[in-house]
Amino acid sequence: MFQGIGFDGMNILFATGGTGGHISVALSLAKELSCKSEKYHVKFSLNFNSFFEKKLKKNKFDYVAYSLKMPNSFFTFTWISFIIDNIKAFVKIFCFITKFKPDVIVGFGSYASIPAVFAGFLSFKKIKIILHEQNVIPGKANRALSLLASKVAVSFKASENLFRRKAVYTGNFVDKDFFIVTKDNGVKELKLKSNKFTIVVVGGSQGARAINQLFIKAANCIDDSIKKNIQVIHICGAKDYDNIRQNYDSLAIIDYQIIAFSDKMPLILAASDLIISRAGATSIAEISAVGRPSILIPYPYAGNHQKFNAQVLEDNKAAIVFDEGSISEQILADKIVALINDRQRLKFMAQASKNLADPESTNRMEYLINKSYENTK
């Protein structure tokens, strides 16, 4: 930990987006820093999101929120509204920064982080700007903002050459509970049956309708003699919750839990024998931290960056990856059954997954923040 002379407190602003992938990693880091020292004073900026605002309040972090919505297409009237909203957001966060006087701003990606990072760059106070890139292939926001940043912390070593001399490998951040929770903890706390094969289906903080529907159809393709020995925890997102609950009534899977969103992800993932998931950077970091085998179905849009995230696990034999456009319910069902019948492969995949976990990521980021702060003096 940094032991700089005269270090009597550091103000840090975390500029995030409005989805779990951005906010969760920032919140994990903020909690870890706050636990280490009262001298870290962390505040957040984010796109309006009532769920994550409640999480920030619960963890006693102050924040400023504004409303930005990216238009679906170029050269439309919605772009005029988007530009106006960005100006409003810039003014709001600039005033917030003027009062808070951060020493360091850490941008976590997303177009919603741009007003905060830009305001910090143009402020009257000398503020060090660090970006954190969660994905193998950087998003457009961080690519643009890297011109203003002194350093770019990357989650994958493969990303280092994309930011050249500014790149610093830190890894991605997840709550420390992911590294210490056990399968027995999860089974007990979630009231699961220890003799059943546990599948966790999760599509990220927003849910994933394609994965939800695919798994339902795949489960119908699995023989009842196998399904009776399976239990499922399905995190489906709020929008799909009622529909998925109705579908489970016909699956012949007696033991299941359907959840819109959960704060118990360490327990849920640790309880699993197999995880079926998107390949967001946060999801991958959490899966690796608990050391579980997975079937990954990357989100095929948003620059297809999840495909490259998933490839890291696939190349290391920790996951099986399918393209959403080519996988069918029968293919998924056959792969699930094959893995259930091949416990040795599951064990090998689990160890490979655990080998990719990085419990030192928050320490590396803390060091980078502190060195940047030292350079402002």
Q: What portion of residues is helical?
A: 40-55%
Domain tally: 2
**What is the mean pLDDT?**
92
Name given to the CATH homologous superfamily of the largest domain: Glycogen Phosphorylase B
Overall CATH architecture of the largest domain: 3-Layer(aba) Sandwich
- CA radius of gyration is 21 Å
Q: Name the shape in a single word.
A: globular
Order of helices and strands: EHEHEHEHEHEHEHHEHHEHEHEHEHEHHH
Percent strand: 15-25%
CATH topology of the largest domain: Rossmann fold
Please tally the helical runs, counting DSSP H or I stretches of 4 or more residues. Answer: 17
Description:
By secondary structure, the protein is an alpha/beta fold. The chain has two domains: 10-174 and 359-374, Rossmann fold (3-Layer(aba) Sandwich); 177-355, Glycogen Phosphorylase B (Rossmann fold, 3-Layer(aba) Sandwich). It has 17 helices and 13 strands. The chain has a seven-stranded parallel beta sheet, with helices on both faces. Strands 10-9-8-11-12-13 form a six-stranded parallel beta sheet. α3 (77-100) crosses α4, α9 (209-221) packs across α15 (329-340) and α13 (281-290) packs across α16. The two termini are 18 Å apart. Mean pLDDT is 92; it is low at 1-6.
